[in-house]
Write a structure and sequence with these properties.
Distance between the termini: 30 Å
Order of helices and strands: HHH
Oligomer: single chain
Number of helices: 3
Number of domains: 1
Structural class: mainly alpha
Number of strands: 0
Length: 96
């Protein structure tokens, strides 16, 4: 992400208007995004465990709400480290 040279806020996060200069889908191929997906899929730092716990809490909290018909815990999952493991892009590998 550093190669984008975004203006950062006081917490060193890029400003939203800066991020909107690039099409959202391009961020999926950054090293940061690939690392996060890999950490989720391999449960690095317990990320997958915490992700499941979060959605259990959300589901329990909203299960009786008549206005909620469903939710999508992970929309459009992305293969993690397809750079080091290009086989992930083959049909039937990542989606198996």
């Amino acid at each position: 992400m550093s190669e984008y040279n975004y203006t950062l806020d006081e917490n060193q996060w890029p400003l939203i208007p800066e991020c909107n200069k690039v099409a959202f889908w391009k961020y999926y191929t950054t090293a940061e995004s690939l690392t996060i997906f890999d950490s989720l899929y391999t449960n690095k730092y317990g990320l997958q465990d915490n992700f499941v716990k979060f959605w259990e809490i959300v589901a329990n909290r909203l299960s009786k709400n008549k206005y909620v018909v469903g939710f999508d815990p992970i929309n459009e999952p992305f293969p993690s480290d397809f750079i080091d493991n290009p086989d992930l892009l083959k049909p039937g590998v990542f989606d198996d």
